[in-house]
TrEMBL record:
The chain crosses the membrane at residues 25-44, 56-77, 84-101, 121-145. It holds the Pfam family SpoVAC_SpoVAEB. PANTHER family: STAGE V SPORULATION PROTEIN AC, STAGE V SPORULATION PROTEIN AC-RELATED. NCBIfam families: spore_V_AC. Keywords: Membrane, Transmembrane, Transmembrane helix. This is Stage V sporulation protein AC. It comes from Wansuia hejianensis.
Length: 147
């Protein structure tokens, strides 16, 4: 039996690996993210129409969207949305809710402390750390350059 050298093996692997469909992925992310944001805008318009002020509206919409993201994750629907929309489902606030609820559900069999509580932020934790860290850096740069 012939042995493949490293270059021939790489060529064989490259032929077999499916090529990503970047164009389709970008379009689906745009559509799914747009739908999620449109739903959020609908809640914003509704809360404004019933007389809530700007702060109440932003708080209310955030709570509603986190609840919907968590509920859909718990029902197994958000994973399907994520498979279709990719980053379009991951970026909005509903994606953040999904990134907290999914690991919590996955590790619930290990108990509430060593399962749910310790694993809940396994995905969202790094996002929070780097988000807070970068906001501090941007804030400091803003203070330095604006005087």
């Amino acid at each position: 039996m012939d042995k493949l050298n490293k270059k021939d093996y790489e060529n064989l692997v490259n032929k077999k690996v499916p090529k990503p469909t970047y164009g389709k992925n970008m379009i689906m992310a745009f559509i799914v993210g747009g739908i999620i944001c449109t739903i959020g805008q609908g809640f914003t318009n509704y809360l404004q129409s019933v007389g809530f002020n700007e702060e109440q509206v932003s708080t209310g919409v955030s709570i509603i969207m986190v609840f919907l993201g968590s509920l859909l994750t718990g029902l197994g629907i958000y994973d399907k949305i994520g498979k279709i929309g990719g980053a379009g489902a991951a970026v909005p606030i509903t994606g953040f809710a999904n990134s907290i609820v999914a690991p919590a559900m996955e590790y619930k069999s290990e108990g509430f402390i060593f399962g749910v509580a310790s694993k809940m932020f396994i995905i969202a934790g790094p996002v929070l750390v780097y988000g807070v860290g970068s906001s501090i850096i941007v804030g400091l740069l803003s203070i330095l350059f604006k005087g």
